[in-house]
Structure formats: C-alpha cells, structure tokens
What does this fold into?
Amino acid sequence: MATAVAARGRPVAAATDRARGRGWSALTFAGILLLLLAVWEGVKFLGGVPWRTPGAVPGDPVLWNPPFRWPFANDLNLPHVWNIVLAFTQPFQRGAEATLAEYLLGAALYTWREAAIGFMLGGFLGLALATVFVHSRLLERALVPYVIASQTVPIIALAPLIAFVMGQSVLTVVLIATYLTFFPVTIAMIRGLRSFDPRAMELMRSYAASRWQIYRKLRLPASLPYLFTALRISATASIVGAIIGEDAGGIQAGLGRVITTFNQYYITGPEKLWAAIIAAALLGIAFFLVIRAIEIAVLRGQPGAEGG
Amino acid sequence: MASQVEAPVVRLSDVEKVFTRGDEAATTALEAIDLDIRRGEFVSLIGPSGCGKSTLLRVIGDLIQPTRGEVVVNGKPASQARRERDYGMVFQAPVLMDWRTVQDNVRLPLEILGRPTAQRTARAREMLELVELGDFLEHYPYQLSGGMQQRVAIARALSFEPAILLMDEPFGALDEMTRERMNSEVLRIWERTGTTIVFVTHSIPEAVFLSSRVVVMSPRPGRITRVVEIDLPRPRNEDSRETPRYFQLVTEVREALRMRGDRPADDEAIGDVPSVDRTMAEGAVG
Amino acid sequence: MSLVSGAGAARTRRRGPAAGFARRGRRLLFYLPAVVVFVAAIVAWEVVVTALGLRTFVLPKPSAIVAALVANWSDPRFGLATSARATLVEAVGGLAIGTLAGVLVAFATSRWVTARGVLLPIAVAANAVPIVAFAPLMNNWFGVLSPLSKMMMAAVLVFFPVMANVTRGLVQVEPAALELMRSYGASEWTVVRKVRIPNALPYFFTALKLATTLSLIGAIVGEYFGGSSLVLGRIIVQSASALRFDVTWAAILLGAAAGIVLYLAVVGLERVFIPWHASVRSSEP
It folds into this structure.
C-alpha cells in the first residue's frame, strides 16, 4: 500500500519533477562541458608547449611556460580551446572571404540535406518492410534474418561499390544514409505494429474491420512510440551515413569531405579539423532534437511520450 | 487483548506514518496504531485500498520507518529484529530470481545468512517438499505456473525458520480456485511450523478462513477500526467454509469494513471516534 | 531472431529425448523459408548473370567471388587472409577495451546517483553525435600506423551502448526484490552480487550484440582515414578503384563473415550465461 499512498497526486508531481529534471540535466550538461574544457586546458597548462596569445606567430612573447612537455598535449594533438573558437571566425582557407563558421554551416546544411533524404527514404522503406512482415509470418521468417544480417556487413565496406555503380553523385550518399536508416525502423516497427491491445483487436474484428482499417486505426497509432524511438536512432545514423558516403562517393562538398580535407592538412591547422568535428557533432545533435521535438508534439499526452 | 503470560511477538504502540514527497501535502498513511500479536497467532490485516495495511506490514518488517511510535519485535526494536533475521517476507508477486532454479531461489536467504552448504541443500529440499514442489528442484521460475511460483516464495520465506512470516497479499494475483487451495496449504504449513503469521489481504473469506484474528482498517488516515476474533474451530478445512459460524464471521468483517469503506468522502466530516463506536456496537449485535 | 520474436515463451515442463527431436524439427522448419531464400538468391544470381551475359565485373557471379577469395587468400597485393585477421584484431581489441570501460563506468554510474545524473545526459548526447567523425583524431592521437588507433575508434563506438545498457540493468531492479534482500538484512555488496549483476546480464548481452557490429564499423572507418594497407577497409577501396570487383566482394564477404561470427559468439555466450532469459528461450520456436 505504500506505493498506492505515495502515488496519490502523482501526475502533477511527476510533471514538475520532469520539468525540474530537464532543467537539471541541461545544467549538469553545461557543467560537464565546462569541466571538460577546464581539464583540457589544465592538461595543457601542466604539459603543453609555451602559451602565446591566440593567433600568435612564433617569436611573440610567451605568456606561460608549462613545467612539463607531454607529447599528447602539444598544440598539434590538443589545440587550445580558444584557438579552436578563433578558427571559427577566421577565413576557412587562405584568401577566402567566408569564415570557417559560415563554411561549416554551408557544409553541414549540405550534409543534412543528403541525410534527410536518406532518412525519409529509409523511414518509409523500414515502415513498408515492417508492414509486410507483420502481415505475413512466412515472409518475416524468410527475410528478417537477412535484414539483420544486412547490418553485420559494415555498410562502409559497401560504400566504394555503391559509389562506382551510382557514379560520383549525391545518390550514392543518399543510398548509404538510407541503408543505415531503414534497419532500426524495420526492427522497431515489427514490434510496434504488434504492440496493440489485443482486446482492441477483438473489438475491431467484431466490427468486421478490414485489414487496412485495422492498420490505420489500431496498428499504426499503437506503434508511434516505437516509431519515434527508432527515428531518433535513425536520425544520427543517417548523418553518419552521409558523412561516410561523401568520402566514398567522391562528393566535393559536405562535412564528410571537409573532415577528410582538413585531416590531410592537419599539421598546418589542427584547429580546423576540430572545428569540423564539432560541427558534425552539433549537426547530429540538432537533427536528433528536431525529431525529438516532433515526437513530443505528436505523442503529447500519450503514454511512452516521456523518457529519453 | 487481555493480559498474557507470554510477551507478544509484535507490539506496536501509537505508530504513525506520514509520507512526504517533495513539496506535496503530506499523506498520513497510518495513525495511532496499537496492536499486539501473540506467538503462533495468524493475524490478517484487511481494508480497502489506501488504508495503509501494506504500509503497516512494512513498518513491522522494518522496511519502512514509522514517523512516530514504537515497534517491538521479540522484545527488541524492529531494525534489530530485521538484522537478526526474524522476518520471512512473501509479496503479492513471487519475486523469484529469474536466473536461479527453484532450489537455488529457496537457498538464497540461507546463502545470505551464511549457513553451511549441506544445510542449505537439505533445508531447501525439505521446504520444497513441504509446499509439494519436490519434483521441481531444477526448474527455472518461468517453467512454473503462478501458483507454483508463489509456493516457491513461501518455501523461501520459511527456509531459515523466521520467527514471523509477513505476507503481503500473497494470493492477490491468483484465481479464486487456486487461491482457496493455497489458503488450505498455508494453514497446513502454519499448523506444522507454528510460525507467527501477519497476512495482508483484501479478501474477506480468505481473512476469516485463515486467521485467529482479523484486524479491520480504514483509509485516510489509516487506522484500526476493529479487531474481530475468529473462533472457528481448528483444524480448519474446506468444510469450515460452509459452517454457519463462518458466514456469521464473514458478515461481521464485511460490516466492519462497510462502516467506513463505502463512504470515503464523508471521512473527515464524520470523524473517527463515533464511527468506531457504531462499528463496535453493530459488531456486538452480529 | 531474438531481436524480433520475443513472443510467448514455451512453457515446457519436462523434456524427454522425443520432445528434443520434435523441437529440433520445428526449429529446422522455422528457418526453412530463410534457407530457401538464400539458396534461391544465389542460384538466381549465378543463372541470371551467366544467361544474360551481364557486365559481370560490378556484380560478379557467386562462383567468381569464391574464386577470387581463394586466389587472393595469401596474395601479396590483396592479402585477404592477412587483412581479415588484422581487421578482426582491431575490432576485437576495440570491443574488449570499449566493453570493459563501459562496464566499469556503468558500475560507477549505478552506484552513485549523482554520477548517473552526470553521465547519462552525456550518453544521450553521445548517441546523437556521429562518432565516426572522430576517426581522423584517433589516428592522430594513437598513431595512424598503429592498430591501436583503430581499436580506440571501435572502443569509443562500443563504449556508449554498453555503458547505457549495463547501467539500466544495474538500476532497473524490481523494487520488491530489493525489499526482499533488505528483509534478509543483506549488505549492499550482497545485493549487487546476487541481484543487480544477474539482473544486468541480459542488458549487457543486448549491448554486446550491438557492439559486435559497431566494433567492425569502427575498425573499418579508422582504416579509411589512413594506416596499414593490408586491412579489409583499404583492400575494399583499393580493389574497387582498380576495378577488381571480385576481390572487393570477397573482402566484403569476409567483413560480413567476421561480423556474423562475432555476433554468433555473443549469442553462444548468452546461451551459456543467461539460459533463463526470455531472449534466449524465445529463440527456440
């Protein structure tokens, strides 16, 4: 009875708890980020190379001379945080007009477009496959093992082949993003489309509802929480696919290409590679948050809408 | 509760439990609880949902600390009694460890108590024979039916010979037929082991059939409204359920419950003392 | 299959040898459609490519792929055996490092509520980050020629799902089981040993199955960004650019085989360690 007593008046309390929890996790997250930066600079303070003002050239006055010289903490392996921040505001290459931030934003939008197309294709493919599988046990048994096996083939191994067949086109990237996206959706929706209340199914049967009506009015609504859980995973997966695919597909734009390029010129500008990686991380998080926002809007008031 | 020669196994004096959760208004789950339980007694706590009967059981078992009042078990504080392993607990769900065989589940408390291996095996076997599951030692919980799982839980609770068995709606999830069979089984075990049992239930027939005393509770705040002595002759069996005295006692408990349970909205308005008086009066007539 | 079926566990009471045969028969029947599809696809592929005389070099016949696999097994240019071994070592090393780190952090996380509040948001954020973007950094940090840089890439990919799942398994214990242990006056360490760890095992194995694929992806992505050329990732790129697609497919086949072997190894461990769990039981149709 303890639980019963404690549970009274719970919904209100749970809602405020959740709001407080969300505020808390945002705060802790900011705290962790600061801590990480502090550790980063702390390591450089102890074992980096002599500190100079941001953007300084050799010969400028030394601000601080660290007591140790750890190879992993030199400016090549671990650039100063402020130099990375500064890099965002500098031209992305010598003589260029656009700053690195603008350049990366453009690249990120390009990559996101590829990823979003792949994401949608993959989402529909996943939904279609799951729909077929929940209606036919035979096809499920015949094909689902291969859906699972398809993911044990490291997709990036296929990238050069797809690139050859499709040519150096965005289609290659989209296909790779689709390949990575459909799997979580298929698997989750095979479960989701079967997650209806069996009593509701009996009710639908008693109305002599058609398969299509049952699908529209029962299976699909019941599966929404599963769908969104899968889409959140797929959002990240599609970005991963696009980044890998740009390199393999020989696309001359996008974050994947930028990361490859900056990696080649790492010695002359490690900050730029860091900046590109940060841009990729932000893009992934942004896409994730967009899907999460849609999820919260669609599932409002439904059980399963909460929790990450 | 007349004078007794032997000290009670459980003595609750003026126990109160208030739950506070965040900035919510506090809920009084238990108020002014006085109760003595004698050695070898079978006491049922009965009442509607939210009356605090499970909370009371957990207060006795030192799983919840009371806000006020004293819980003395075998002459010592409840927390000491728990540490000295005076309690066996059975919950509504069997709470078996999925990863242990039936036999290993019954052994679990003996492992924690550090009993020698040979004794663990012998004791687990003996207890499973007692609940008539001697043929299922090596089975996993998922291979058993709900009733069988609950019998394993009972065997586990009895395995280390606790002074008191605390049972929290142990048969609440079972169907009526299985429940009645389990009732007879518990009575048989109780008669053979002589363990003191505190039993939470919301089934009136179950409480009357099993108990030596039925403690009737009311919600908001959780209080004891009546204690009904069950003087059905022992040993009891299925035929006991058909005697006129049984029906009389069932009616008596039902009326004791109805005095409060049907009108939760009036609780505050009526107040506690008069309603208890009325219950007492009617009970006396019945 | 465990990912999908999950439906009603067979409540078998006692299994005689006859029941064993029947079960094996049912299992064969259950996988029959999948086997039929496999055989049919291979045959159709071979027949269509031969009959229509297609440009076979992008999609060579299965027999040609097998031939390439044999011919290049210990070839000096496309050393498939050496490459497969190198990639597998990177993946397994990363799997071990990432799993160990994930489990250790999960224990710390589950033990301290504050640690949980701090680490779980990171895990959620890390899930949304395309971690493969870090591959060039790993190469710069741990040496582009060293297999360690590839292992670390795989380890980072493996770490987060393992940590998040094991934490969940250690924390999401039935409250009644904790009450039961408390009623026995069990110590916190006993509770961890007898309840939390066994409870976390199924979560651990779920994460590990996911991690097998991730570790291979991590290793191959790391290879793409530079390093030794006798690894599967480089062989695939080089053979494709040399238009030797039979070798490309043979290398992909090896990569897939490595993935399946690792996955099946985890399934095998699962059967040994958690025979009582639904995911294992329900894979017996």
Chain C is about 75% helix and 0% strand. The mean pLDDT of chain C is 82. Chain C touches chain A through 57 residues (CB under 8 Å).
